[in-house]
Write a structure and sequence with these properties.
The chain has 480 residues and is mainly beta. 6% of the residues lie in helices and 40% in strands. The longest helix has 22 residues.
């Protein structure tokens, strides 16, 4: 009987150990943001909260004669000491890929104040004193989308790459050694299966060890159904996998006009997608208002906003938050068709701040790009009300000597942290009563227990974190 009991106990222990191993998340020393439930086992009285970017200032006005009311598909990234911006110039609406389209450029030293340099690369409207970096190459200025190729060993004259093209041409590649002077990489397209009638984006993924490209397809093919996103990967930017439509986790289908997927600069294993959610036929602006704004009738019958999606690789977006991330501004002029489209790229613009960019008043003479600001890592948080609550993580494997949090409390709020064994038992010296009470607002603040921040003795073994919170937000965590 005793032997049977021992065998039963052994089986239970093995089963429990296997279950823990299966659900353990190895985070190493990565920064992890609470934008999804990847780390979360249980929420008790707390919720995941989406935070809203705040409009700060006008980054640029699309006011040059070769720019105009139909500028679009903006790309922004930081390149060392320079911030670079690219966008389509188009003063008059027309067929995608028309000869009237050019690719424009602006730059900044801080991501806040932007200038349009007079480059003298192309003559436009009889003048070379302009900010055009690509012209007379229809249809490629329609959706020219550059990025910095960070793959180790990439040739210097191909450090900057860009994708461009339509359903008629497929996606072609342009390369540059300075981000200003571009040449077509090869005559043939690299990707041909898709609609491409949007901004099609790519980057080298350090996380997945390959190039990834996210581009426009339609859910029912041949421009039918919902505007959707498909993904392909490549080891060399030449040979690409067959496209796979992204999975949205069973959430309601919506038209996603642009996807703007890219690695978050402080946690490159996490891809952030600032997608433009398009609501065809959802009319807010009256004919009279449209006429007053100077909007053509075809650009007044829809509305759109920006939504937040994330991915950790593979063909799946997490849509924890279906609510609008970037709502249209006050007044009907901010509700015309194809306005409120976010740019590709999020950049740091301060010690505690990051910026993203959104088009306002598309199709109007006043069309411009607005800079929005958000707390660093501040897309979403575990949020506790005044009544308080708890968040318990899945078992985690970490590397590092201390735990740092990005958090904010009210004057009356606080955060305490307990480190547990995988079975939920507090580890001696790291129980909730040993934790320092964290109060304040910090991008990085180390947690201490009994006056010490040292957790190195627990590294490499599965542990759970239990956050006990009151009137507080936790945005991110990291072991370092």
């Amino acid at each position: 009987m005793q032997r049977v009991a021992s065998l039963v106990f052994a089986v239970v222990v093995l089963a429990t150990t296997a279950a823990i191993a299966q659900e353990t998340v190895d985070i190493g020393s990565r920064r992890e943001l609470f934008v999804d439930r990847t780390l979360i086992e249980e929420l008790r009285g707390v919720t995941l909260k989406l935070h809203e970017p705040r409009p700060a200032d006008v980054a640029i006005a699309f006011d040059a004669s070769w720019e105009g009311r139909y500028c679009g598909y903006v790309t922004v990234f930081q390149d060392g000491d320079v911030y670079r911006m690219y966008y389509r110039g188009l003063p008059q609406a027309g067929k995608d890929g028309s000869a009237a389209e050019v690719t424009c450029y602006a730059e900044s030293r801080d991501g806040i104040d932007w200038a349009k340099p007079e480059l003298g690369l192309f003559e436009v409207d009889g003048d070379e004193d302009n900010n055009v970096v690509l012209a007379d190459q229809a249809p490629f200025s329609h959706n020219f989308a550059p990025f910095i190729d960070t793959r180790p060993g990439v040739a210097a004259d191909e450090r900057y790459k860009a994708l461009a093209g339509t359903s008629h041409t497929g996606l072609h590649v342009f390369v540059s050694n300075d981000g200003l002077r571009w040449r077509k990489w090869r005559e043939d397209p690299i990707i041909t299966q898709g609609a491409f009638d949007s901004q099609n984006v790519a980057f080298w993924s350090e996380h997945e060890g390959c190039y990834v490209c996210y581009y426009r397809t339609w859910s029912e093919g041949e421009f039918a159904g919902y505007r959707s996103v498909s993904r392909v990967t490549s080891p060399d930017f030449v040979n690409w996998t067959a496209p796979i439509e992204m999975d949205y986790g069973g959430t309601p289908r919506e038209h996603l006009y642009t996807n703007q997927t890219h690695p978050y600069f402080r946690a490159p294993h996490l891809y952030v997608a600032l997608a433009a959610r398009f609501m065809p036929g959802r009319r807010i602006v009256s004919d009279e208002e449209a006429a007053a704004f100077g909007v053509e009738a075809t650009y007044s019958g829809d509305c759109s906003d920006g939504v937040l999606m994330t991915s950790r690789g593979g063909a799946r977006y997490d849509r924890t938050f279906m609510e609008g991330f970037i709502r249209p501004g006050v007044g009907p002029e901010n509700w015309t068709s194809r306005t409120n489209y976010p740019a590709w790229g999020i950049v740091p613009t301060g010690e505690h701040e990051m910026s993203l960019f959104v088009q306002h008043q598309y199709g109007q003479p006043t069309h411009h790009l607005v800079r929005y600001v958000l707390r660093t890592d501040g897309f979403a948080s575990v949020n506790a009300p005044y009544a308080g609550g708890e968040c318990v993580t899945k078992p985690l494997l970490f590397a590092g000597k201390e735990l740092v949090l990005n958090f904010a409390t009210s004057a009356a709020g606080d955060v305490r942290v307990e480190i547990q064994r995988p079975d939920g038992a507090p580890i001696a010296g790291y129980a909730i009563e040993d934790s320092a009470t964290l109060i304040g607002n910090f991008i990085e603040r180390a947690v201490s227990w009994g006056g010490s921040t040292d957790v190195s003795g627990l590294a490499g073994s599965p542990v759970r974190l239990r956050f006990v919170m009151k009137d507080a937000d936790i945005f991110a965590l990291r072991f370092r």
